[in-house]
Amino acid sequence: MDINKIVYWVLITGMLVGNALLATSVTLNILFQDSKTLSIMIAFLGTAVLIATPYVTIASIILASAINKDYKLLVISLIILLVMVSSLLFGLIFRKTPKS
Amino acid sequence: MKYLKDPKGKKIKLFCFMIIAITILTLSLAVVETYKESSSLIANVNIKTSQLDSVIQIEVLLVATLAGFFGALMGLGGGVIIVPVLTSIFNLKIHEAIAISIIGVVATSISGGSSYIAQRITNIRLAIFLETSTTLGAFLGALLTLIMPGKFLYIIFSVFAFYVSLAQLHSIKEEVKKISVRGFSNVLPDAVSKYLNLSGEYFDEREKIKVEYVVRGSIIGWLIAFIAGVGSGMLGIGGGFLKVSAMNLFMNIPLKVAIATSKFMICITAATSAVIYYVSGVVRLDLVAPLAVGTTIGATLGSRVMNKFKIKWLKLIFAFIMFYLGYAMLRKGLLLIFGLSLP
Predict the structure, then answer these.
(1) Which of B143, B276, B291 to mutate to test binding with chain A, by most A CBs within 10 Å of its CB?
(2) pLDDT tens digits along B18-29
(3) A91, B280: Cβ pair inside 8 Å?
(4) How many domains is chain A built from?
(5) What are the two backbone dihedrals, phi and then psi, of residue B297, each rounded to the nearest 5 degrees?
């Protein structure tokens, strides 16, 4: 399995779906002043898709390296996903954001 | 490790599916939880957006396009342009600007990253290797913000940015020469690089030559990527300049590969940070939409022209941006620590 191709398609799909939702949100906001709530809801979903894309990318690298029996890549990708999920759980539990 | 030695690989696949299922469940939980908490936020934003001029959204879109273009061209996230503009021109609070910016960084790096992967410039194995330290650093940095301020990091990063700026100027001729005489492949890999098979190649469209390179200095690169991660977690910056510099100056990686690989890495680091802002409900959804769309357009354009640029010009632009970054961080650090205000 060509990991480059898989990663490319995951990123492209995430980018297109996320941006389509966000572009719809902008268009609604500019053209229809009374559809603010719908516009924000779509932006909420579009943002979720964008943030989830890198998670899915790492997950797809894990799957592809398992299929390719590339265990070195599998192990280091698993470490990344573990840290990413820990970060997500950390955010959910503590609700703390970096200060500037 | 027993599962990893399984010849049929069925247990490995099962294990991977379990891990991915847990990830999807956690992500779904995050979206549902955030949605519950955001009901009031959405209503609040709704009031704000009723006063939001459509012209402002178009202005944000244009600024984001510019940030996305330069971010893709230099392998940076673009936050260095977005945050000051949002705070100074659009009068947003700093934490709101950082939260919006980090979503924009995710958008631009997904777009730029995918384009470089299509052009076969990105080294995914190298990105994944360096990303282990960056994500660990980002996580540790986020934890550290609970017990200590990160303002001293501004001074350290500014010194590094000044050093990188000078080093890039100094290495212009050297890199051009190395590409023409195949100097990037005439070295021996270190043990880590050899074990993980990190070396690679790309086709330089400007020079019309296939450039092969051997990765070395993996440990130094790993440590610098860790520091970049800590900076990302503590200060909300992407740390792209640290990653590009570490790869190009210390790991024998051509600048174009360093830029493309950094761009892919930033999408993972930024998503790890962005999710914390997202679930905390501090993201202004009304401004995120034009910003993300704008950075995507800019990054798509930037990543298409990067490989056509002369190395000399890329290095000059990178050195200039590094100098500006170094000054900006020094100014901020001096202001936060000593109360000194530079022009």
Answers:
(1) B276
(2) 777 777 777 777
(3) yes
(4) 1
(5) -60, -50
